[in-house]
From TrEMBL:
UniProt pathway: Cell wall biogenesis; peptidoglycan biosynthesis
Listed GO MF terms: ATP binding; magnesium ion binding; UDP-N-acetylmuramoylalanyl-D-glutamate-2,6-diaminopimelate ligase activity
Cofactor: Mg(2+)
Source taxon at top rank: Bacteria
Species this protein is from: Fibrobacter succinogenes (strain ATCC 19169 / S85)
InterPro entries for this protein: Mur-like_cat_sf, Mur_ligase_C, Mur_ligase_C_dom_sf, Mur_ligase_cen, MurE/MurF_N, UDP-N-AcMur-Glu-dNH2Pim_ligase
PANTHER family: MUR LIGASE FAMILY MEMBER (PTHR23135), UDP-N-ACETYLMURAMOYL-L-ALANYL-D-GLUTAMATE--2,6-DIAMINOPIMELATE LIGASE MURE HOMOLOG, CHLOROPLASTIC (PTHR23135:SF4)
NCBIfam families to which the protein is assigned, alphabetical: murE, PRK00139.1-4
Protein name from the UniProt record: UDP-N-acetylmuramoyl-L-alanyl-D-glutamate--2,6-diaminopimelate ligase
Alphabetical keyword list: ATP-binding, Cell cycle, Cell division, Cell shape, Cell wall biogenesis/degradation, Cytoplasm, Ligase, Magnesium, Nucleotide-binding, Peptidoglycan synthesis
Cellular location(s): Cytoplasm
GO cellular component terms, semicolon-separated: cytoplasm
A single GO BP: cell division
EC class: ligase
Amino acid sequence: MISEGLMQKLSVTGLCDDSRRVKPGNLFFSIPAEGYEAFARSAIAAGAVAVVGETMAPEGLTSKWIQVPDVKAARLEAAKIFYKDPFSKLICHAITGTNGKTTSAFLMNAMLEAEGRKTALLGTIKNKIGDKSVPASLTTPGLLDLYEFASRAVAEGCTDLVMEASSHSLHQGRVAGIRFRSGLFSNLTQDHLDYHKTMDAYFEAKKLLFTKYLAENGVAVINIDDAHGEKLFNALDCRKVAVSRLGKAKADVKPFGEIKSTEDGLEFTLPMIATDKFETPLCGDFNVDNLLLVLAWAHALCVPEDAMRKAITTVRVPGRFEKVWSKDGKHVIVDYAHTPDALERVLNVARSLCRGKLSTVFGCGGDRDKTKRPIMGGIAERIADKAWLTSDNPRTEKPADIIADVRAGMTTDKFEVVENREEAINRACAELKSGDWLVIAGKGHEDYQIIGKTKHHFDDREIAVKAMTDAEA
């Protein structure tokens, strides 16, 4: 469909599938959708040398139109040619699941770096090539951005790529053309049902990492404490490793004896991997899950033990149970928890460490899955002593409507409604006494708040630190 000779003849200088981003010399791919003709004309007006589409050429575009039977297949073919098939030159690793992807990806990347490898990282918080970091806008970029990123990683001398694979990217084929050396599955809990509609469809999207994109000699590392993880493990016919914090009999990697958990971190023993116990400043049972998964992965790939230990003691993940204030017995945690399961697990960990009262500030995102809102309200009410219900990223919904959905799952008056998020954080911080813990949930690493369709600078961590500092003055 698309050949190197054709691209040379057209003097293609870049590839694009978003008419708003077209630059002169680009080859534009017209993905079938409503309004495709207008997008194609816009691309030509912006300087595209040609448009690749599945339909007959619209009037006036015949000389600039390349008709193909499958535009997405043509786009993949062109990406491999233009970017010189970069994924064939990288060892690629991916993790999927609802929660834990970012922390696990950071750990994987840190272990490979500790082994002496030059890595690239793609994820929710940031994209990184070697030591160069750039902000990330999507958990998994679009296919053309992904190929461009991989091409840069190869040019910079990277040997490995670690990435978070979102359900959207797997379902939409954004990782097409990649064969992953390893795939990890953390868990599956309610999220993104505005897109997938059902949990079964959500699971089938995640499953694609292992059934469609894992290399023939690839290894799957799966948390079988999760019901969907166990289902996935049983269904796969490949090299696979089962991981269980709960000590399930068929697990290949599971802790031996007590898991020591304090506000200073975790200690546990994995006799399948090492004789001496592992120690890390990461907190909580959810991080035990992340650590077991990644340590099992590293062991399967023969990463040296000293590299594993160095990574788990030094890695820091912004906005993931991040302790932003700890003084005079008062503790303030900022976490990205924005699903029912994540909120419940974060609050349970804080509850287990708290010697005083536990409070939480949280909201739910607008224009997203509404069914989880009352569930999260019920969880906060059950675990915390007090909840401050506020705005998250309301987007185009009214904050009061979102908060009303959250309140629908609550049956007591253990909450206050403060629509303005900064005010809610300030008031929650002002109430803290020695021994108390505050969990500010939902936005984590984000340094913005989306109101309407506009992004405004807003960082939970900055607001909390200022509030606590002012309280100390």
